[in-house]
Write a structure and sequence with these properties.
Layout lengths: L11 H8 L7 E8 L5 E3 L7 E4 H13 L4 E6 L19 H13 L4 E6 L12 E3 L2 E3 L1 H17 L3 E4 L6 H11 L6 E8 L6 H7 L19 H14 L3 E5 L5 H10 L4 E5 L1 H10 L3 H17 L4 E4 L2 H6 L5
Parallel strand pairs: 1-3, 1-4, 1-12, 4-5, 5-8, 8-9, 9-10, 10-11, 11-12
Antiparallel strand pairs: 2-3, 6-7
Helix pairs in contact: 4-5, 7-8
The protein binds ligand PBG.
Ligand PBG binds next to helix 6.
Length: about 325
């Protein structure tokens, strides 16, 4: 089975995220999970966002939960000595990332939606999103690794595995791999329309995932590409069985978001990325100004057709009840 519409209805938390009124429950808070214990490192350029070891992460998520956040996106950060050509650590069930997924599911069960980033870039020693052969990022072998990572996250309990790599054909390959391992209720969120953007800078710092050579232009979309390319990517992923279609970044691509939302049937997410967050945090040092900017931005995403917003602002929105 390629498409299982029931995946998005599987738990109340998923239904609230995808089909409720646009509200606090439509937001997803990203987290950077590091190895160790007691670690709570502020990330340069991203005020209020920290790299955290699993123990601190759980406390943070518990606190956010008490303020009304119900969905999280986890990025597993790998120590440099654990990185290699194959991104082995990314699918290692004994890693801190997998431990975080298991712990969250055992504490919160179905009352939260756990999304996990599926990519190679945080675990490869060259920082690329795929495997590199003769200086090129190869597609199909990378997809095989992505499937292994996705299945390992599903096994740990992820609600949605989120393919952020932009390899061709990975959504259908991941869906098939999940089916083969009987993870029929695990969904795939696809970073379908992802541009090779200059707005990811602070994230790459946070995730230690900058490419050592070259850039991401052979897989991520060209910023000058037209609507046809955007809708093609979204439609391909929908056909391949994506449960949620994402556009990324958000603010510079609101027009694309609207086009994509009008072109596909599955729920639409938008990623309000690290550079967009930093801009607001740098400009709006004062809370009231921040509230107004953040609420205006969230309204723009809703208007452009997003049901779900992945945003670093979620915590502050929840804490001060800026959204219902
Ligand atoms: C990994 C990935 C990136 C982001 C999310 N997943 C960085 C990249 O593609 O280089 C960026 C998120 C952000 O900037 O907040 N492939």
């Amino acid at each position: 089975m390629k498409t299982r519409p029931r995946i998005n209805r599987w738990t109340e938390a998923r239904r609230n995220l995808l089909f409720g009124d646009f509200s606090l429950q439509s937001l997803v808070q990203p987290h950077f999970v590091v190895n160790g214990s007691g670690i709570d490192n502020p990330i340069e350029g991203m005020d209020g966002i920290h790299q955290q070891s699993v123990d601190i992460l759980i406390q943070t998520i518990r606190n956010d939960y008490n303020n009304g956040i119900r969905s999280v996106m986890l990025f597993g950060i790998v120590n440099s000595e654990d990185k290699d050509e194959q991104a082995t650590k990314a699918s290692d069930a004994s890693s801190h990332m997998h431990e975080a997924i298991r712990k969250l599911k055992s504490e919160f069960g179905d009352s939260i939606v756990v999304m996990t980033d599926v990519c190679l870039c945080t675990a490869t020693n060259h920082g690329h999103c795929g495997l590199v052969e003769h200086g090129h990022i190869v597609n199909d072998a990378s997809v095989e690794r992505l499937c292994e990572i996705a299945v390992s996250h599903a096994e740990a309990g992820a609600d949605y595995v989120c393919a952020s790599d932009m390899m061709d054909g990975r959504v259908s390959a991941i869906r098939s791999a999940l089916e083969a391992e009987h993870h029929s209720s695990t969904g795939v969120l696809s970073y379908s329309v992802k541009y090779a953007s200059s707005f990811y800078g602070p994230f790459r710092h946070a995730a230690d995932s900058s490419p050592e050579f070259g850039d991401r232009s052979t897989h991520q979309m060209n910023i000058n590409s037209g609507y046809g390319e955007a809708t093609l990517e979204a439609m391909l992923d929908e056909e391949e069985g994506a449960d949620i279609i994402m556009v990324k970044p958000g603010l510079p691509y609101l027009d694309v978001l609207r086009r994509v939302a009008d072109s596909v049937h599955r729920p639409i997410a938008v990623y309000n990325v690290s550079g967009e967050y930093s801009m607001v945090m740098n400009v709006a040092k004062e809370l009231e100004m921040r509230k107004q900017m953040v609420c205006e931005i969230m309204t723009s995403f809703k208007r452009a057709g997003a049901q779900v917003v992945i945003t670093y602002h979620a915590r502050e929105i929840a804490k001060h009840a800026w959204m219902k």
